[in-house]
Amino acid sequence: MSLPNKMAGVPTQDLPTPDPLSADAPLPNPLPRPEGELEALQRVWQTPRGWRFPTVVNNNWIGVLYLGTALLFFVLAGCMALVMRAQLAVPQNDLVGAELYNQLFTTHGTMMMFLFAVPAMEAMGVYLLPAMLAARDLPFPRLSAYAFWAYAIGGLVFFSSIFYGAAPNGGWFMYPPLTSKEYSPGINADFWLLGIGFIEISAIAGAIEIVVGILKNRAPGMTLDRMPLFCWAMLVFAAMIIFAFPAVIWGTILLELERAFGWPFFIPERGGDPLLWQHLFWFFGHPEVYIIFLPAAGMVSMIIPAMVQARLVGYGLVAMALLGTGFLSFGLWVHHMYATGIPQLSLSFFSAASFAVSVPTGIQVFAWIGTIATGRPRLQVPMLFILGFLFIFVLGGLTGVMVAVVPFDWQAHDTYFVVAHLHYVLIGGMVFPLLAALYYWAPSASGKTMSKRLGTFAFWLLFIGVNLTFFPMHISGLMGMPRRVWTYPEGMGLELWNMLSTIGAVVAALGVAMVALDLLRNFRVSNGAEGNPYNGGTLEWLPQGNYAARSIPRIHSREPLWDNPDLAEQVRAGRHFLPNTATGLRETIVTSPIEARPQYIAIIPGPGWAHVIAAIGTAGFFLSLTVEWVWIASAFGAVAVAAVLWWLWTGTDLGPVRDSVAIGGGIRLPVYVTDSRAVGWWAMVVLLLVDGTTFSCLAFTHGFLWLVNGDAAWPPAGTALPELVVPAVGAALVAASAVLLWVADWLLRRGHVIAMSVAVLAALGLLLAGLGADLAALWETGLRPGAHSFGAAVFANQFWQGLHAALVLVMALYLAARAWAGLLDPTRRVTFDNVRLFWTYTVVQALAGMALTHLFPRGLGG
Amino acid sequence: MHHSVLSPMGPEAARIAELSWLLFLGGAAIFLLVMLLLALALGGGPGVRRRLGARRAILAGGVAFPVLVLSALLVHTLGVAAALGLGEPAPLRIEVTGRQYWWEVRYPDREVVTANEIHIPVGRAVELLVDSGDVIHSFWVPSLHGKIDMIPGRVNRRRFSLDRPGVLRGQCAEFCGTQHALMAFFVVAEEEAEFERWLERLRAPVAKPEEPFLAQGWQAFGQAGCGACHAVRGTPWAGRSGPDLTLLGGRLSLAAGTLDNHLATLAGWIAGPQDIKPGNRMPAFNTVLDGPELRAVAAWLESLR
């Protein structure tokens, strides 16, 4: 291969012995490998068979199941689109009535967003990331499996609601007051709020796994700037989920509280405002679009170099562009609200920000064009889909600039022009790259390429079909056709354009069918796929077994397989790090987040039922709440909590099962660490970022409703807040619980485990007493959540603090039980550390919450 | 009938249409340019491909070019947006309230109320104030101006004028429930004198008709309880939860753009509104009124012009 050899070794001159990660050092492990080493590795990573198959956690299986389920929902939601196109083929059609049509478009949009696009990308992450990073698996495989099962079960039940007329019918954006109890009394809206609510939880679980996996599970020497761009994209993707999804989760909590208990967040007569929902929804909803697009862009940046056999031009620029897009996308949400009467000055700001986001996208498009120019393009199926992507996505991006223009958007907004735009962007920007990825990476799972003939045929059907469906919609929109209409009148000149769209939809559907046929005929998952048919340069093309790569290579460049043609053979022979199972359990090397230097060996849980039962419990809990089966929901909830505890008890914090192990190259690593090196610590920190973002949305709710009502009505006349002394005592008790945790830490360090558990339970008492005192004082004054948005906001705050108190309660009891069971000691203390992290956060949040309730209104001078 | 963004009937819509053409042509040119570069990357000569593959090309195409073009566009569109802003006061004020699934129209300075049809004198600056009586709707007449949302608890404003007489179609643009699709209305642009005559007719109280068949309709209208929801100016019936029916016979459509307006469609609507527009608020009257009564009510309402 005539590629420039950019071997960037780790500097070694200062070290007495060569750094085992440097390219000059000998390979970490010698030949021959000991007898039975490979067999032991295979045995440990074996996937369960038969009736135990649902317990599988290996990422290659969960990834494929996850992706398959997402594709199933894509097809189902696509069928709904076909019914809608049939209804709109001619004016004044009565194939489906208004009510069914409204359920169809709501469910279509919701499923495509929440059940297809985001899960499909998480699936690709779960499937590809360990292989690209040369990790044995992601750090929390049961968490991925839990996320998958909760999503699959919940998603199927959600989908089936269309068959008994209970599907949501208020649009995927669910604007109140249309979705309030008054205008949507049925359970349809609840299906959306609760059904989607926990699919969001599943998405967050996946995002935590992906962030920690990318930052902590890279192959030794794979510094951040040698990381494949797909990993960069997935890192930004997961970070965006962490900061965007809390807004919609908080919004759905508020709307469900309003629907179920009459707390008037969105009812103007009682101090609420429908626009509060729109801000929360679009603060999530706009980043959501980039959440879907960025991983796809990452895939494109992986596939093009392989297809043209040249390194990506402008790696650093593209990585910066991914970060920049993620950052900017949080400043655009108001561009969905240009017509709501927001002042012109704010609109100008959001218009400028919307323009700005086209710069990072422009960088990527030109980097891809440049890469194609430097290489030798091969028109294989993945490349066809990439070219189709560029055509469709660039067109959609340009109409995106158009709708960022305020006066134009006043016309185009909520018309078929926007339907055209968003499908160009999402199909072009996500579906085409995903299909390219499917054809490109299928051999890594099944060992053989899919059919070139069927793939080419599918590409042309899809390319023609998509353009034929959506291009005419620009025109019908400009001619006055709004979105979300189940019918349209004759004589407006819309007949031709709608008929073309319907024909196009059928053509595109045939294309999807062709891909499905190809998958059925040519795709079988096999453990141990070999070969690199497209000659990719990154680690997922190493020979793989159920244990992923036999040994974990040390990395010196971005395309190790191009720079070291012998690497695949070395890895397979077991000459790199950790060619065995050092502890006799599933394990992977944990590395430092930036330099990727080995830190410790993390033991990874294997197959189990606990997370599967937890997923069933979680899905059952939310779905039974939807249909108001409170007792059954409680039972499911209890099952979920019990299963999670069982899962934690048996699968986490195993302690130092061995002192340390050698992974080769003279490196010995501990198998148990307790500080900020531990993946569990990282996961907890990421979870707290989610939590903190949700609390920020809570604070935003207070601030927004205050602005709507004005100083004088915050609190409204006649509402008295309790004297400050009671909440002050409450705050002191809450703070004291955190102090007591430090005492517990001191006791644990000295080995007084039982005394520690007493201190923890005492701290629990203080926390509950403090929060309880605050709640009681508020209730005493006669403040109620239903009367005015002020009370609603205050009690939403109380609800959130109460939820945390409940979690701390469970954690404290769990910690005490671990202590009494002898599973906690001065060394084995990860459980204690993680509980303390969460607890400390809860205390800080409770104090901030009390300030919001008691000090903020007083600070207004009222 | 005008219903397209690209067939403007007044200066505001014309300005946006002009901006739209700029965007379409500019967008098309950039699209063709990018596709040309892609084609060159795939099959161009070695010199061109080497230049496209340089880091400089990414910075030029991905940063410099969009920053330049978009900065210019931003300045231009802010100018257009400023010109579309709210100007001096004292034009003709019109208030429109969106309701599931029809439009209440008020001329507060003239103290008249109508529904689903807005008459506007050409050449006069109009200040439109919109709000909602239930859920969020959006007021959109493409040939008039961009859309503006009707949000409960808020009043939004737009200012516009029309250049020439004609009929413009408008439609609700924010999904508002089951029959969002059947929530249209018409704007009638007419000369000042004609507009004033229309206002006069709208303001004149409706008297009980002399003609016996129409009088029978008047009577049946009252007995059936239509006045609980509908108002007819000058009569005892002053309900506000349904559209005002004064001058109903003169309107261009029935049920907010759902049906043509004539005797047969009106009688059919009164008899079975839930068959025609399921989910709207009007109950069926086929069991309340018998055939002759139904025809009489329809005939009387059609006579209000």
TrEMBL record, chain B:
Ranges where the Cytochrome oxidase subunit II copper A binding domain occurs: 89-201
CDD domains per UniProt: CuRO_CcO_Caa3_II (cd04213)
Key words, A-Z: Copper, Electron transport, Heme, Iron, Membrane, Metal-binding, Transmembrane, Transmembrane helix, Transport
PROSITE patterns associated with the record: COX2, COX2_CUA, CYTC
Subcellular location: Membrane
Main location, first listed in the record: membrane
Transmembrane segments: 20-45, 57-86
Superkingdom of this protein's organism: Bacteria
Family from the record: Belongs to the cytochrome c oxidase subunit 2 family.
PANTHER family named among the record's database cross-references: CYTOCHROME C OXIDASE SUBUNIT 2, CYTOCHROME C OXIDASE, SUBUNIT II
Name this protein carries in UniProt: C-type cytochrome
Organism: Belnapia mucosa
